[in-house]
What we know:
Chain A is an alpha/beta fold. Chain A is built from 14 helices and ten strands. The N and C termini of chain A lie far apart (78 Å). Chains A and B meet through helix 3, strand 6 and helix 14 of A and helix 3 and helix 11 of B.
Amino acid sequence: MKKLHSLLLSLATLVALPAVHAAGEVNLFGWSEYVPQEVLDGFTKETGIKVNFETYASNEELLSKLVAGAGAYDIVQPSDYTAEVMIRRKMLAPLDRQKLTNLKNIGPQYRGMVHDPEDKYTVPYMTGTVGIVVNTAVVKDPIKGYRDVFQPKHRDRLVVLNDNREIVTWAFYALGLPANEVTAANLAKARPVVASWIKLVKVFDSDSPKTALLNGDVDIGIVWSGEAAILWNEDKKFQYVLPAEGAHQFVDVLAIPTTAKHKDEAHQLINYILRPEVAKLVSDKFPYTNPNLAARRLLSPEQLANPASYPQAGNLQPFRDIGKAAADIDQLVTDLKSAN
Amino acid sequence: MHAPADPAPLPGDRRHPGWIAWALLAPMVFWLAAFVVVPAAILLVYSFCERDEVGGVVFRFTLENYQRVFDPVYLRIFARSIGYAALTTAICVVVGYPVAYTIARASEVWRHRLLLLVMVPFWTSFLIRTYAWITILKQEGLLNGFLQAMHAGGGPFNLLYTPAAVVIGLVYAYLPFMILPIYGSAEKLDNSLIEAAYDLGAGPVRAFSAVIVPLTMPGIAAGTLLVFVPAIGMFAITDLMGGAKVPMIGNVIQNQFLQARNWPFGAALGVVFMLMFVVTYGLLQRRGARLAG
């Protein structure tokens, strides 16, 4: 009898438990390797709100999944130019600024950026640049820009991002073309440059370009600044250079889709991440540029001295959404790669 | 004149399956319908559609996607993928056949042990095994280190991120899929047929080519199918070990669904790819039927 009683009791709790959790959960859809687990655990510990975390590896994957109507996500983490198109297509809900008391920690230079001029829909999470990392133990001559990287003498000693838009944009910079004007005429001008560059590259890798540099398979890379920052932490011979011709600056943001079911919890989590001591945890794990100035004050001098995380000012520009031209870029680079 | 009455059907000897048979088949039929037929149909429909700027599919009929598939750029990529897959299959046959034959002819105890060794790699994730090859082939890796320790001249060799590395990776990944079907055929091989060949004056080469190979042909055909078709579409190995330098058809399809936001074109490539599979399968079936006949 006692047994039956305890069985019924445990059954009752089993039924009750999901009800308790359903009251407090939030579905986060973010970049892989970008949100430290301890941040999410800390949030759950403090608020009791469970965080369901799913990841994607590219903005396009995020867009595809949202367009296909998959999942009920409460927070997404697009890059600036993807947030721009999501705002235009009314896929993001306006934020309730009253609930985001820690928004004041974000530096003024990261407010009102082109993708969201009124800061209505997005909050900066981390920012970074795409630049050149040089193994100075091997490469002795100075590397200042893309033209210095893509030299015949560096053939088969280069790693670059496996990202067709990035590669074409570097060619635009080298030619002095506006980075976001992806027209047929500009692509035709860039074509011979990209063709000659692609022949020199040994590895195309967006996921972990630092690996080829660490392994000694290549000596120069054009990579995400966070990757370069990890390399610099590993060995000071890896120097980061912002290309003189111009470089891509990206801002990854936090935003709430219009379809979100837990908007209140989503605001709570965003506000939690904006806390200085929490944003610092992100910097510790993923050394990109932290837009949270209050968090920057908590970083060690070594972290702040990392030239890839906090580079000297350069000619930095954001990507804008280019719509269908993305497919033209893909066709161009696929064509040139397969001609090798 | 009456035709002789059919003997009373035995439960296991029916020409027409009863409801029990259908009930047993139901999970399989459901699985095929839900995960093969329906996705293939969606792919087919998408391949005739247009797309919008964020990569959504717009249901307006167009043949543009198929026109693009037959652009020389993509035909060349198809051809290259087939070339790599064919080379991989050939190496797998040459390497896998002796292994499978030896295992099949070994004593029972050894047979089990050796088979286990063939299958042990499957206990680890495929990606981890591929990364292990990166550790071996990289410039400061195990192979170059070993060669330097042996004072073999010429090094360090540039192996990783070359076509050779891609073929090594593909052969490594697919070799078990060649060994196991050939083993299945070779194990059933009747020894007396080989002895008969020798008795009738065949030398070892003749006995092998005229008796052993034809009898194990079903295994070779099955292995070829299991290696060749997935090897054409593989994209992870070409990315990781080839440095993503020369695109294979798998990489191009993957790109359409992600970077290029062009699902309809990716679907068209996928449909053509599936047709290629059907053709390969048909050819092998016909060849098998001819041999059996």
